[in-house]
C-alpha cells in the first residue's frame, strides 16, 4: 500500500535554507527510484524556520530502504544538527486526488 | 509562483469518510484544470477524524478561481457542516523535490 508521510521540521534560527539545501541534495538519490512517487520539499510561508516535506512511496519498506542508503544517512545526520528538536512525522493514507497515482 | 497549501481538516466523529468522499468528488473538477498540479487527499493514520489535503497550483489566482466554481462551493458547504471547526490552512512555498514540477 502507498506509504505517505507529511514531515514537519523546525530549523534552528537562520538554518532553514541550509536544511532545505541538504534535503534537496540528498533527495536527488530518489530521482532514479521508481518507488518514490513524490518527494516535495516546501517551506512554511508564515514561519521562517519551518519546513514541510511530503513523501509518497509505493510502500513503507521501499521508503525505509531508501533512507538507509549511506549517502543519505550522512546528510540526514548533518541536517538533524540544524533542527530544533526532532522532525514530526504525520503518517497519512492516500485516499485519492490528482497528480499522484495510487497503488 | 506555485501556490501550495497543506490543509488540515478535523471531521466530526464518524464523518471523515463522508468528508473525504466529497473532497474526492468535488476535486474531479480539477482533473481537466492544468493549473492544478497536485490535489492529494489523505487521512491521518493515527487519528480517526483528521484529513490532510495537499494542494499545488500554478498560482494563487487559479486556485482561488477553481474554488469559486458553483459546483465546488455547494459541496464545500456540505463538507464544512461535517467538520469540527474550520480547516487549518498552512501556506507553503515549494523548494523542489521529485514528482511535481516547479513553476
Instruction: Profile the largest sheet of chain A.
Output: 4 strands, antiparallel
Number of strands of chain A: 4
- Percentage of residues assigned to helices of chain A: 25-40%
Number of helices of chain A: 3
Backbone shape of chain A: globular
What assembly state would you assign to the polypeptide chains in this entry?
homodimer
Radius of gyration of chain A: 14 Å
Q: Which chains have the largest interface?
A: A-B, 34 and 34 residues
Distance between the termini of chain A: 6 Å
Helix and strand topology:
Two copies of one chain form a homodimer.
Chain A: E1 3-10, H1 16-27, E2 36-44, E3 50-57, H2 60-68, H3 70-80, E4 88-98
Antiparallel strand pairs in A: 1-3, 1-4, 2-3
Overview of this structure, please?
Two copies of one chain form a homodimer. In chain A, helix 1 runs antiparallel to helix 3. The first copy, chain A, has a four-stranded antiparallel β-sheet with strand order 2-3-1-4. The longest helix of chain A is centred in the N-terminal third of the chain and has 12 residues, at 16-27. In chain A, 31% of the residues lie in helices and 35% in strands. Chain A is built from three helices and four strands, in the order E-H-E-E-H-H-E. By secondary structure, chain A is an alpha+beta fold. The interface between A and B is medium-sized, with 34 and 34 residues. Strand 4 (88-98) of chain A pairs antiparallel with strand 2 of chain B, so a sheet runs across the interface.
Amino acid at each position: 500500500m502507498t506509504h505517505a508521510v507529511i514531515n514537519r521540521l523546525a530549523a534552528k534560527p537562520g538554518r532553514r535554507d541550509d536544511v532545505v539545501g541538504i534535503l534537496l541534495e540528498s533527495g536527488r538519490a530518489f530521482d532514479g527510484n521508481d518507488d518514490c512517487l513524490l518527494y516535495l520539499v516546501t517551506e512554511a510561508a508564515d514561519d521562517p524556520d519551518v519546513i514541510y516535506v511530503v513523501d509518497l512511496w509505493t510502500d513503507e519498506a521501499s521508503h525505509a530502504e531508501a533512507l538507509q542508503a549511506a549517502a543519505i544517512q550522512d546528510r540526514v545526520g548533518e541536517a538533524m544538527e540544524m533542527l530544533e528538536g526532532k522532525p514530526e512525522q504525520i503518517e497519512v493514507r492516500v485516499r485519492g486526488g490528482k497528480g499522484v497515482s495510487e497503488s
